[in-house]
Structure prediction request, 68 residues.
Amino acid sequence: PTRQEAWNLTKGVLGVTVSMALFLGLLDYLFALALQGIIGGSAIAIGIVGVVAVASVVAIMILNRRTA
Prediction:
């Protein structure tokens, strides 16, 4: 690749890396809050975790049905 193409690809890789780092950091923070709420017995946190769990199972079932 040319120097310009290499620089453009490098910027793309850096952008994706920073975006994923921020996304994973946000998920880590949210899961820590949810776990703290579950341990503390917060009904709201337990409800949110339940809704997320059900939504995850439904999403997995839908994705598996499309690929089969």
User: Anything to note?
Assistant: Residues 3-67 form one domain. The chain is about 95% helix and 0% strand.
